[in-house]
């Protein structure tokens, strides 16, 4: 799996000890650099939200499938140990899916900026 390349300034935003350093660095950014940083920060926050949601969904799925596996194990005779692999397979599939989605959000291209609507130079201004 590839390592996610997080921008160094974005990484500082998640470290409480480096907030002052980050504030000084942001003050020196141009408007284009600030927009780029904001885009990267929004993507990093969205990625972390998706990852956290995946972790929570995996825990709930593990609990539900493990209880189901215990019920199945208790009510059936014979070789049913395989049923205890199902919870871990579900957790693996959920974590893989949410991880793929989180990486997609982290590498999303910036949204196109809408130019301010100004009257064109060759069109006459509206009369008052």
From the structure above, extract its key features:
128 residues; single chain; mainly alpha; 4 helices
Notes on the protein architecture:
With 128 residues, the protein is mostly helical. It has one domain. Helices cover 63% and strands 0% of the residues. The protein has four helices and no strands. It has helices at 8-13, 19-27, 31-75, 86-106. Helix 3 (31-75) packs antiparallel against helix 4 (86-106). The protein is elongated and about 70 Å long. 5% of the residues are buried. The model has no long low-confidence stretch (mean pLDDT 83).
Give the end-to-end Cα distance, rounded to a whole number of Å: 63 Å
Low-pLDDT sequence parts = none
Tally of separate helices: 4
Give the CA-based shape: elongated
Helices, strands, pairings?
Blueprint: H1 8-13, H2 19-27, H3 31-75, H4 86-106
Quick summary:
With 128 residues, this protein is mostly helical.
């Amino acid at each position: 799996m590839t390592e996610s390349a997080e921008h160094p300034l974005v990484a500082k935003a998640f470290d409480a000890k480096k907030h002052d350093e980050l504030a000084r660095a942001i003050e020196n950014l141009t408007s284009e650099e600030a927009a780029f940083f904001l885009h990267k920060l929004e993507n990093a926050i969205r990625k972390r939200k998706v990852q956290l949601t995946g972790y929570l969904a995996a825990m709930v799925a593990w609990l539900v499938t493990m209880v189901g596996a215990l019920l199945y194990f208790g009510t059936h005779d014979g070789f049913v140990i395989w049923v205890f692999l199902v919870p871990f397979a579900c957790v693996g599939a959920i974590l893989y899916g949410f991880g793929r989605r989180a990486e997609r959000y982290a590498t999303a291209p910036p949204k196109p900026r809408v130019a301010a609507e100004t009257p064109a130079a060759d069109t006459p201004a509206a009369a008052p």
